[in-house]
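Give me the fold.
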Amino acid sequence: MLSFITPLVLLITLVLTISHTQAQTAEPTTIAFGACAHQDRPQPIWDAIVAKRPDLFIFTGDNIYGDTTNMSVMQTKYNKLAAKPGYQKLVKSTPILAVYDDHDYGQNDGGKDYPEREASAKMCLDFFDVPQDDPRRTHPGIYGSSILGEADQRIQIILLDTRYFRDDLDRNTLTDQEKKDVGKVGWYQPTTDTSRTLLGEPQWAWLKTQLQKPAEVRIIVSSIQTISWEKGMECWGNMPHQRTRLFELIADTKAQGVVLISGDVHFAEISKTDEGPYPLYDITSSGLAQKPHPSWPKAINQYRIPGCLYVGENFGLITIDWATKTLCLQACDVQGQPQFTQNVAISALKVK
């Protein structure tokens, strides 16, 4: 595997630089993110991402398509990503944080029963140069958090592990025609078994602690969509009690400034719900080098903000304007052109 120390050094340096510079000038902070970077496909999108000069890039999963229990095969696929010239430019210029989704975890739609979950978690942390003394290495799974900035410009990045602890999902029994009639495209349905977990109790306890930390903006990274649930694809809504628990935890901890990001579905959209203590937004960006089945973007999503849908290869961009206290949420195409934009006042993301 190609090893990169540069992202760690850059992350430490840029955290300090961002903190100092923003305190002096209130310059915007830019965070790019994306998912679904198939290692065997061309990846021209990295040039557009690097050109945005983001302060951080977040992988939200399917960073490679491993789909194996053979860790040598998995390693070879990570090496293919590492060898991409565009990705190498990103590594040299931009700090990187990452979570896995199912394909880079090792099993399509996989959960806690994937037999190589420990090895997969370690390989993910190793590839993205997570330090040996990092808290993410002290517990099962890969969840963790980082703080960028200080004073009144703190950005908390919360990285969730939606695979390592996840219980089985319920499959729907709809025919293709029945799915088409109701706007579904996937294989799953919400469970009524409230004993099932998505995150596992240790991760839930950790998340509560994280949400109690001071921050002006919090980006919660989930590999799967959090708000939209009707498609029949993987999402938090397949365990409705877990989705509700997340929204209630945000309210109970009075965590301000929460924005959700996700990947997985091979297209970009923004979903919004009023089920939380304030309007919650989930900006989905996918894929970096994957395209959807033609039916997937047509699936029902009552939460989608009108106009916030893009089907081409894309990356997400969150720009935090500290002068105006505004978040700008965008999906950008391979040329770096925004395909939709949603502005959100930070003041609107507070528990009343």
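The chain has one domain: 6-348.
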